[in-house]
Amino acid sequence: IGGIRYALSDGVATVFDGTALTDAVIVPASVTYAGDTYTVTAIGAYAFYGSEAESIALPDSVTAIGVSAFGGCYNLTELYIPDGVTELPSMAVAWSYCLERISLPAGLVHCDFEAFFGLDNLREVEFRGTLAQWCAADGIGRLLTRGSTVTLYIDGAAVAGELVIPAGTTRIGENAFYGCPLTRVTMPDSV
Fold first, then answer.
1. Which whole-number Å values give the CA distances from 112 to 9, 11, 67, 107, 143, in the listed order?
2. CA–CA separation, 9 vs 15, rounded Å?
3. Taking phi first (over 0 means left), then psi (-120 to 50 degrees means alpha), and beta for anything else, what does residue 127 get?
4. What is the rounded distance in angstroms from the CA atom of residue 56 to the CA atom of residue 45?
5. Which of 6, 15, 33, 138 is the most buried (most CB within 10 A)?
6. pLDDT band at 142 (very low <50, low <70, confident <90, very high)
7. DSSP state, 54?
């Protein structure tokens, strides 16, 4: 359907092959096949692996992303992960060398250790949640160890200068502020 292959079941569609697509790819929120409509809720394992797409737009209906779903997408420069996604598995976007910008949802709570390997040109990480949510997320800070100079934006503002960790924060994830140009960090007693 539109150059993308789907697994269809019980009103739900999972993208399982979009590797032949190039240029700008738009994954629809729903697809119709044989008169039935299916909501696209997942990007399956290896769905776009090695695709030559320059951009891949995902609908807000997507809540799951499979292993290496965007791995090896050498022309991909920007990726927006929808709000319903809470985890990024192993190699989710690994080896997408040209990726310069990634936008992550507020509800993202876990990123596998290998989710972000090989993102040498990454320049911007946008997190659409709060500072407290960023601190609590497991593995998400590994994105900042990629690329030469990565700027982190949380809730629309660049993380730089003085940083005050919110009261009630109980943990700060590994590498959460790696490379951020911070001059001072104030932490609550709860950390």
1. 28, 29, 10, 15, 11
2. 12
3. beta
4. 15
5. 15
6. confident
7. E
* Alpha-carbon dihedral sign for residues 57, 70, 61, 141: negative
pLDDT in tens, 18-77: 888 888 999 999 999 999 999 999 999 999 999 999 999 999 999 999 999 999 999 999
- The token pair at 46 is 């290896």
DSSP code at position 137: S
Single-letter residue type at 6: Y
Per the CB < 8 A criterion, the answer to whether 27 and 62 are in contact is yes
Tokens representing 162 are 């003085």
Token pair in block for residue 119: 């993102």
Token readout for 191 is: 């950390």
Q: What is the pTM of this model?
A: 0.89
Mind listing the pLDDT tens digit for each residue in 112-126?
Answer: 888 888 888 888 999
The 8-class DSSP code of residue 65 comes to E
